[in-house]
Write a structure and sequence with these properties.
- The chain is an alpha/beta fold.
- Helix content is 43%, strand content 18%.
- It has one domain: Leucine Aminopeptidase, subunit E, domain 1, CATH 3.40.220.10.
- The chain has a six-stranded mixed β-sheet with strand order 1-6-5-2-4-3, with helices on both faces.
- Helix 5 (130-147) crosses helix 6.
- The mean pLDDT is 97.
- Bound molecules: adenosine-5'-diphosphate.
Length: 176
């Protein structure tokens, strides 16, 4: 049973703006008005219509998720989620990050997305320790997929080999 579940999780190295999935998740900030890192890359690739739509939404609290169209991206939808800024681990950073994955996957089911791609939320400018973040990402995704059959595949798109290797290592641990 776990083997089957494991096949619904894929680790890829690459650029999330190029991935052909129903929905890509964006590591946004609370303003939803774009920024650096993966957020900037998604806005550039989607085009100015994305910013026009996120302006109308008016922001998103940490740990929650908001959906827009994907515009010029290969993905039909963008799920914007706001990860916690790491500040030592005593400000509920773990719980907020777990909520990002739960709420993004829940949003994916609400729009009927069957394939979903995630970047490594909070591990760039927000400085969340990589291994700890990857552990949360994979455990939350595993338990969500266990309870939900409508999402067929979740792809973790790693920007660089260091992140890729860490996901592969933690994936083995999570599925022991
Ligand atoms: P945060 O502010 O949530 O930390 P960042 O965008 O700074 O978000 O970083 C999140 C992760 O996204 C980092 O691991 C970074 O290397 C990665 N990243 C940056 N650009 C891309 C991209 N085009 N595709 C996939 N991942 C990316």
């Amino acid at each position: 049973m776990d083997r089957e579940l494991k096949e619904r999780i894929e680790i890829l190295e690459g650029d999330i703006t190029k991935i052909e999935v129903d929905a890509v998740v964006n590591a946004a900030n609370t303003s939803l008005l774009g920024g650096g890192g993966v957020d900037g890359a998604i806005h550039r690739a989607a085009g100015p219509e994305l910013l026009a739509e996120t302006r109308k939404i008016g922001g998103c609290p940490t740990g929650e998720a908001r959906v827009t169209k994907g515009y010029r991206l290969p993905a039909k939808w963008v799920i914007h989620t706001v990860g916690p800024i790491w500040s030592g681990g005593n400000r509920n950073e773990d719980e907020f990050l777990a909520s990002c994955y739960k709420n993004s996957l829940k949003a994916a089911t609400q729009i009927g997305a069957v394939t979903v791609a995630f970047p490594s939320i909070s591990t760039g400018a927000y400085r969340f320790p990589l291994e700890r973040a990857v552990d949360i990402a994979l455990r939350e995704t595993k338990s969500f997929l266990q309870a939900n059959q409508s999402i067929d595949k979740v792809i973790f798109v790693c920007f660089g080999s260091q992140a890729y290797n860490k996901y592969e290592e933690v994936l083995k641990k999570v599925f022991n």
